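Pasting as-is:
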Amino acid sequence: MTAKTPIKFGTDGWRGIIAEDYTFENVRYCAQGLAEYLEDQGLHFHGVVVGYDTRFESEDFAAAVAEVLAGNGIRAYLADRANPTPVVSFGILSKRAGAGVMITASHNPARYNGFKVRSAYGGAASPEVIAELEERIAVAQAGGRLKRVPRRAAETEGLIVLFDPGEAYRQHIAGLVDLDAIRNAGLRVVADSMYGAGAGWLPSLVGGRTSVIEIRAERNPLFPGINPEPIPRNLGALFNKVREVGADVGLATDGDADRLGVCDEHGRFVDQLRTYSLLALYLLEVRGWRGPIVKTLSTSSMLDKLGRLYDVPVYETGVGFKYVAPKMLEVDAICGGEESGGYAFRGHLPERDSILAGLFFLDMMVRLGRRPSELVEYLFSKVGPHFYDRLDIELEPDVRPRIEGRLRESPPTVIGGHRVERLDTTDGYKFILADGSWVLVRFSGTEPLLRIYGETSDPEKLRRLLDETRDRLEVGMGAR
């Protein structure tokens, strides 16, 4: 008997290489483990929302999940088309479901797909829930236990119900932001969905006097030439289009449209730390909201400064919305966000949502009458200049123990000529320097990558900090 692939959830869900470990059999075991967990918790009566993105075979993997849920007597509300993760997550609330499943590998390369679990509140399941799911999936695998009803029969019995989660989401969004004001502002916006599930959403919400020019809006599961992650190395087409058409702003969404990338009117990237800080400033100053801010430890110290300026608390968590979402709910945060470009907001979902984040960014431009580069300058006038970058370094699995050993046994006390004042090992190794600069070294929870992050007040200093850290660990050059 062939050994089963261990199913381990990373930063956000389980991801695997299609046809290697990400197979229909393994996806069904994930669904079986979830079904048994929900039954044990008494949540199975409420049903489960199942959605999917535009990746290869995503709709068929989603149907496989629905069949297993049906086999366990749980109604599956199956999305009738590819949708962004936040739209599917809101579907959990609109259906009052007990949980949700999203078939997506988010920003990973094209050969991956994934299985995300969302709790009844529409956000990422907590680490405790994920740990229990992993155990139940392993037990189901070991016993070869799967219950399944074929899709056609399940639809006849009412155990699989097709639905469109988009309408309830649109109505909700219209209550959170003045869409008419954005439509009538006369902006020129370039929207890059990176061949993913975000295609069509922005023009349908704010098209009018504001023109939305879409690029890479067709479905292409190969994601030619890119990974669908909205960071500079994948956004050349967006930068060029913004400059070509003289746009006011460029907005990019990742494969399942829960992460946002922004470029300014000059076709220059507005990094994720600046974007999240701008969104927090928008809520605090433009909208007048008050309440805690939640950020991961890889996110900007500008948020701490804004917290002090506006007298609101700032809470820091490990990397991933499985930490951010529960903390947002615990403290009733106005926003939660992470370095990867995922941002969530009070009154909506404790879930990354690039569509709402993009609309909030446009609303900030309209209300303040400033273009993105001017917004960044306005932010810096309050918190000082900040520069950020990240190195992504591919690693062979056998290299990781050596790097971890070096960090654990002889962590640096000086980086780039600056004393390390504090070491935070909540999630990786974060070195906080005496002047407030920081460097974080951690392994990706979704890919075989070592990531080195840094933030400081000077671009040349930032380069020295990143390069010295990389050289100290004796790893490759990495991609930016």
